[in-house]
Write a structure and sequence with these properties.
The complex is a heterodimer of chains A (340) and B (193).
Chain A lengths: L2 H12 L5 H13 L1 H20 L17 H10 L27 H5 L26 H11 L12 E3 L5 E3 L11 H12 L3 H12 L2 E3 L1 H8 L13 E10 L4 E9 L3 E8 L12 E6 L2 E8 L2 E8 L2 E6 L4 H18 L1
Antiparallel strand pairs in A: 1-2, 3-4, 4-5, 5-6, 6-10, 7-8, 8-9, 9-10
Helix pairs in contact in A: 1-2, 1-3, 2-3, 7-8
Chain B lengths: L19 H8 L3 H23 L1 H18 L9 H28 L16 H11 L2 H13 L3 H7 L6 H19 L7
Helix pairs in contact in B: 1-2, 2-3, 2-4, 3-4, 4-6, 5-8, 6-8
Classes of the chains: A alpha+beta (340), B mainly alpha (193).
C-alpha cells in the first residue's frame, strides 16, 4: 500500500477501529512513512487539545453517573413559565426589574457598563455620549401591541399573516393567506435563532427559503437599484465574505455575510426601506446613540441591532455586545456623512 | 470486513429510538410527551454535558438543552433520528455555555490591557482556539468529532447514535480532523509534539 491508499484508513487506524490483516498492513506502512506518522501525530495533538479543553469529566465514572433527581421537575417548572430567550443573560431586564422610562437619560458608564454584556471600555477608546432612552416592553404587552396594531412584518409591510412566539412557534394572525409559507418575520426569526448556534445552517436555510443567489458587488448594485452602503465601508477588522440579494415584495434587500477577526461571523442586512425589521414579540428595547435610534433584540443568544442610515435600514445580527453595535453605528454614520 | 464491529449498547439510550408519537406530542406541547422524551434521552445528554462543561454545571446545561429542544422541536423535520438532532443541539448548547463563561472570564480580566495594539488572537488560550475552530466546522462533523473524542464511541456506536451509514463514519471523522487542523493552524495553533 502507498500513502494515498493508506490515507483513507489512517483515521480508523488511529481510533483503533481497524481489524485483522488490514490493521497489520497499515501499521507496516506507518512504521516506514514519515508523512503518515506526522498525520497520526496531528490526530494525537487534536485529541490532547480536545481532552484538555473538555477534561471536565475526566476521572468520573460516566456510565454510572445520574443527574439530580429533581432535574425533570426543574425543567417542567421552567416550561410552565414563559422561557426567556437566554436564561442567565441579563441583556434585557426581567419583568421584576424596574422599567426605565423612555425619556430618562442614561450615563453610559453606569447603566450600560453595569450589564454583563457591556465590555469594559478601553481607556483610550473615545467616550460616546449615549442618550439611551430605554423602554422595557414586557413580552406579553409587546405581543398584544404588535398583534393589535398589526405592525408590519419583516420587510413586508402589508402581510402580517403570522406571529412568532418566544417558543419559536408560528401562529397565524388574521385572515391573510401566505400560501403555506413561513412569513418573512418567521423566516427571519428562524434565521436569527439558528444563527446563534449554527451560522452556516442558518444561512443555507435562508438562501433556500428565498431562492436568493450570491452576487458580486456590481450585480448587487444592479439588482438593488442603488449603491450598497456597507461593502467597502466596514471598520477595520471586518470582511465581507459574501453578498446575497433577496427579492422582497416591497424592494430588494442585500445581505452581507461578514466575519470579524479571522472567524467570527456577523451578518448585516441593508434594506431599501427605512422601516425597522419586525422581530415579533421577542423583548426589544430602543436606545439612542448620538441622536440615532437603535432597536436591540436578543434572540436565543444572538444580538440583533437595527437602525436607520440615511434612507436605508441596517440590521446587524451577531454583534458581540452594545459596544460593538455602538462602534458600527458611529462608523456607518460617519461614512454616510462623508459619502453624501 | 475492514472495520471492527461490535454489539455494544450505544450508551444509556433505550433501544429502538424515541417513538414518533412522543416526538409529535412534544411538537404539540404535550407535557406527558415531553416527560417521555426527557426520560428517553436525558442520561445520554447529561453524561455528554458532564464531559463538556463539568459535573458542577452539567445539570443546569442539560436543563437548558431540554428547554431549547422543546422550544425548537417543531423545527425538527424528521429527516434524521430525533436523538441525533438532540445531540447536535446539546453540543451547540454546551459550546455556547463555555463561550459565555470564557467571555465573562475575559471581561473580568480585561480591565487594563497591557498593550492595546496586541491582537486578540495572540492571547487566545488553546481552548478558545478550539472553540473557534469547532465553530467553523459543519455541525454534523463537529458533533461526530466531539462524540468520538469525548465519549470514545466506536464507529459502530457512532453510526447508530448519529444515524450515519456505517461506511461514512471513518471518512467523515477523517475530514473533521483535517479541517479542524487547518482551521486551528489558521488561528495560530501550534500543535504540541
Amino acid at each position: 500500500m502507498n500513502c494515498h491508499q493508506v490515507e483513507q484508513y489512517l483515521c480508523s487506524y488511529y481510533d483503533r477501529q481497524l481489524a485483522g490483516e488490514l490493521r497489520q498492513t497499515v501499521a507496516g506502512h506507518v512504521r516506514e512513512c514519515e508523512s503518515c506518522q506526522r498525520t497520526l501525530e496531528t490526530f494525537k495533538s487534536l485529541s490532547k487539545l480536545t481532552e484538555a479543553s473538555f477534561a471536565q469529566g475526566a476521572g468520573l465514572d460516566l456510565q454510572h453517573l445520574q443527574p439530580p433527581e429533581d432535574l425533570w421537575s426543574r425543567i417542567e417548572g421552567s416550561l410552565r413559565e414563559v422561557p426567556p430567550a437566554n436564561p442567565g443573560d441579563t441583556l434585557f431586564p426581567t419583568q421584576d426589574q424596574p422599567e426605565v422610562a423612555r425619556s430618562e437619560t442614561v450615563q453610559p458608564d453606569r447603566k450600560w457598563a453595569n450589564r454583563k454584556w457591556a465590555k469594559p471600555r478601553h481607556p483610550q477608546q473615545p467616550r460616546v455620549r449615549w442618550q439611551a432612552a430605554l423602554r422595557w416592553q414586557g413580552a406579553a404587552l409587546a405581543a398584544l401591541l404588535l398583534i393589535a396594531a398589526g405592525v408590519g412584518i419583516f420587510w413586508l409591510q402589508n402581510q402580517p399573516a403570522y406571529q412568532i412566539t418566544q417558543q419559536g412557534q408560528l401562529t397565524q394572525q388574521g385572515q391573510h393567506s401566505h400560501q403555506g409559507q413561513h412569513s418573512h418575520q418567521g423566516r427571519l426569526a428562524h434565521y436569527i435563532t439558528t444563527f446563534a448556534h449554527d451560522a452556516d445552517a442558518a444561512q443555507q436555510t435562508l438562501v433556500a427559503d428565498y431562492g436568493a443567489q450570491r452576487v458580486d458587488l456590481r450585480e448587487a448594485s444592479k439588482r438593488l437599484g442603488y449603491q450598497p452602503k456597507i461593502p467597502g465601508r466596514l471598520p477595520t477588522g471586518y470582511t465581507v465574505d459574501a453578498i446575497y440579494v433577496f427579492e422582497m415584495d416591497c424592494c430588494n434587500c442585500a445581505q452581507y455575510v461578514c466575519h470579524r477577526g479571522k472567524t467570527e461571523r456577523l451578518t448585516i442586512f441593508e434594506h431599501g426601506s427605512p422601516q425597522a425589521a419586525n422581530l415579533g414579540n421577542w423583548p426589544t428595547q430602543e436606545t439612542h446613540c448620538n441622536g440615532e435610534c437603535c432597536r436591540l433584540t436578543r434572540m436565543d443568544g444572538a444580538l440583533v441591532a437595527s437602525w436607520q442610515v440615511g434612507p436605508r435600514q441596517i440590521t446587524v445580527v451577531g454583534a458581540h455586545d452594545i459596544e460593538e453595535v455602538q462602534q458600527l453605528m458611529i462608523h456607518f454614520k460617519k461614512n454616510d456623512q462623508g459619502a453624501s | 470486513m475492514h472495520l471492527k464491529t461490535d454489539n455494544e449498547p450505544i450508551g444509556p439510550q433505550p433501544e429502538g429510538g424515541c417513538p414518533q408519537e412522543v416526538v409529535q406530542g412534544c411538537q404539540g406541547g404535550d407535557r406527558d410527551s415531553q416527560q417521555q422524551f426527557y426520560q428517553h434521552c436525558h442520561l445520554a445528554i447529561y453524561r455528554l454535558m458532564v464531559r463538556m462543561v463539568g459535573l458542577q454545571e452539567a445539570a443546569d446545561v442539560t436543563q437548558q438543552v431540554f428547554l431549547q429542544a422543546f422550544r425548537k422541536i417543531d423545527q425538527f423535520a424528521g429527516q434524521s433520528r430525533v436523538e441525533t438532532w438532540l445531540h447536535r443541539l446539546a453540543v451547540n448548547e454546551a459550546l455556547q455555555h463555555l463561550r459565555r463563561l470564557s467571555r465573562r472570564r475575559e471581561a473580568s480580566l480585561e480591565v487594563e490591557p497591557a498593550d492595546p495594539h496586541q491582537t486578540r488572537s495572540a492571547n487566545l488560550a488553546n481552548q478558545e482556539l478550539l472553540d473557534r475552530a469547532l465553530a467553523r466546522l459543519e455541525p454534523d462533523l463537529r458533533t461526530l468529532f466531539l462524540k468520538r473524542e469525548l465519549e470514545q464511541m466506536s464507529y459502530h456506536q457512532l453510526a447508530i447514535t448519529l444515524d450515519l451509514p456505517a461506511g461514512t463514519v471513518a471518512s467523515r471523522l477523517n475530514r473533521a480532523r483535517r479541517l479542524l487542523q487547518e482551521y486551528l493552524l489558521d488561528l495560530g495553533w501550534e500543535a504540541e509534539p
